[in-house]
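ARCHIVE CARD
Drawer: 12
Card no.: 0347
Subject: one protein chain, sequence and derived structure
Cross-reference: see card 0346
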Amino acid sequence: MTRCTPRRLGAFFVLAASVWLATLPAHAQTVVVTPNVRNFPAAALRGELVIVAAPAITMDGKADRLSPGARIHGTDNLLVMSGALVNQTVAVNYLRESAGMVHEVWILNSEEIAQKRPNSKSSSFWIFNFGGSGASVGVKSP
């Protein structure tokens, strides 16, 4: 019958300790994230979106169209149906597809509106906070 010798027991503890250390998080790789501010693609443009009757929209006061399969992300990053935004002016970041139609839209919250983008225009937006959920949206004043 083989017995657990001190040499085998020591090798087991060294192996167990090395496995345990390998599972610890690497603190040098932590990322500081600003709450309520999403990371947008560098190519994203800033504008004012009004959905007239999907797919017809106006972007910065000019007639435009949503692409087939366009996605509209709300302030909580969940998808928003275009019918819920009819005749509302909202501050957005957006991307166009290769044919030039608006394909990806992010409705901005108050912190994101405050961030300047290279292509943003100065416009007057009112910030509305919806209840205690912490969600807010920028709406252009009439």
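Annotation on reverse: The two ends are 89 Å apart (CA to CA). Helices lie at 6-22, 110-114.
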